[in-house]
Amino acid sequence: MAYLNRRFRRDERSQIILIAALALAVVFVALALIVNSAIFTENLASRGEMSGSEDALQMRHEVERGMGDAIRWANKHNNSGAPVTELDEATEKMTANVSHVGERHLAENGRLVNVTLDTTRDGTRIVDNSSGGSSFQSMGGNNDWSVVDDIEQNDPAQENVTRAFEIRVIDNTTLTTDDADSGNAFEIEVEDYDTSTPDPDSYNVFIWRSASTTPVTINVETRKVGGSPREDCAVEVPQQNFTIDVTRGRVAGTPCDALQRRQSDGENFQFGAGVDKHYNISFANGHNINGNYSLVTTNTSRASSNTLDVDNPNTAGTPFITDAIYDAVVDFRYDSPGLTYESEIRVARGEPDA
Amino acid sequence: MDRGKMDRGQAHTLEAITAALLLLASLVIALQMTAVTPLSASTSSQHIENQQSSAARGVLAAAADQGALKDAVLYWNNSSEQFHDVESIGWYANDPPNNTFGWMLNRSFDERGIAYNVYVVYRQQSGNHRQMKMIYRGVPSDNAVVSARTVTIMDDDHLVRANGTRSNTTVLKSTVEYDDIQENEGTGIYNYVRVEVVAWRI
């Protein structure tokens, strides 16, 4: 017992030191226990996602890109004017290939993938692929002409009706240096098909080159619905040949504000924005640009016979129209030991981003 | 009274020794009990590996979406039969290639002190897979992570010149290292290559 009053002698105190040591020992062990709980909680909380869905989504993206390539190949090599059923067969064969490629790669890791074609939507492709480039005039030599009429949305859920509109300028000196206001710059006009309404919507893109700047600056300006709002971009392009991706909104690989959604207020300048999904596309001042172009639309009827030739006659400088696949829907299935993922993928390369 | 003091001396000593031993033992137990998990902060922590794996995945996904991955795979010098501007050893060792993919890798990895190798794995006509080095910085450490992405090359894809523009030579007629696998004739697939990025902290 510990008698702590002064009446007793100090060396008769009992084992205080031992008790203190015992207490301290218990405290240390308790502290270690608390630290362990904290470490274990952090471990549990930061365990990553285990089921492997990242792999499934990555494979989905790869399949989408592979199918985009496949459709581009099928469209491009349809120059002989084969009927659309053959185009569909070619697409099925390409889909089987994409599936096969994926299967072989993933089987090594114990995964299965399967891609089958569900539906395709027909359209047409308008091309000017003269080697060395040509001016963007019609077959009859007109500078201002209607490229495609009556492009219509087949399905209310469909967002876009034109895709993969690419202009490849081979020699940038062929671009005029007159700007959009002069009325001489090359212009792409997208207009309501039904012009009988009082206020037809329109979307116009002007392309020209800045006079005497080094390196050369390419200017693109977009005007919606009769002059305003408008947006422009100027991109320095040191190379003589470059590509303008009109539907994807890039000039020589650089995103262009005049062809995308404006950051500050969300105003949409993507291709055909503001125009009802039933429109015509025409060119103006086609002599003030030189190169190649191609676009795919959902329009399935032939254009008038004196503006576009049919099915690549190999006549230099003549644009032509040919059947093409606008988009395709494929069924995608991914199996792994812990996860099965099935999805439909809509493939339409070159559409404006949502 | 004196006898009492002499008797108690040994007890006091014993008490002190026991107390000291008890304290020491508890300290040792407490320190040994503390869990060291793979997530504890160190250069080989699992967090860092997860982070690098996500970064590698992200770079590959962004490059594939822009088309920069295919351009990097076709960034081939037809006359010298190598990638453009490689060092004499045959692959990039000091700097990544001067194309969009190389700039992306530089921003994501080089500026953060993470070393990386990039391999291109392709199928040969015999059916075997061959791994070609595009960027090689040395043997990876034990805690390296790998991430991969497949690129399909079609027959009519063009090579890319050193300045980034499209060359006139198509893959079919070039000296590119990847073979033409020629299966399913008429479908236009030239080969499909896997781009693997191995990253580790120096």
Instruction: Please state roughly what percent of the residues of chain A sit in beta strands, choosing from under 5%, 5-15%, 15-25%, 25-35%, 35-45% or over 45%.
Output: 25-35%
- Rg over CA atoms of chain A: 33 Å
Q: What is the number of helices of chain A?
A: 3
Biggest beta sheet summary of chain B: 4 strands, antiparallel
Indicate the multimeric state: heterodimer
Q: How would you sum up the major sheet of chain A?
A: 10 strands, mixed
Whole-number mean pLDDT of chain A = 83
Shape of chain B: rod-shaped
N- to C-terminal distance of chain B: 73 Å
Question: Which term fits the overall shape of chain A?
Answer: elongated
Number of strands of chain A: 16
**How are the strands ordered across the major sheet of chain B?**
4-3-8-5
Low-confidence stretches of chain A: none
Structure description:
The complex is a heterodimer of chains A (354) and B (202). With 354 residues, chain A is α+β, with helices and mostly antiparallel strands. In chain A, 22% of the residues lie in helices and 33% in strands. In chain A, the strands form 2 sheets. In chain A, strands 1, 2, 4, 9, 10, 11, 13, 14, 15 and 16 form a 10-stranded mixed β-sheet that branches. In chain A, strands 3-12-5-6-7-8 form a 6-stranded antiparallel β-sheet, with no helix packed on it. In chain A, helix 2 (53-76) runs antiparallel to helix 3. The longest helix of chain A has 30 residues, at 16-45. By secondary structure, chain B is α+β, with helices and mostly antiparallel strands. Helices cover 34% and strands 26% of the residues of chain B. Chain B starts with a helix and ends with a strand. The model of chain B has no long low-confidence stretch (mean pLDDT 86). Classes of the chains: A alpha+beta (354), B alpha+beta (202). At the A-B interface, helix 1, helix 2 and helix 3 of A face helix 1, helix 2, strand 5 and strand 8 of B.
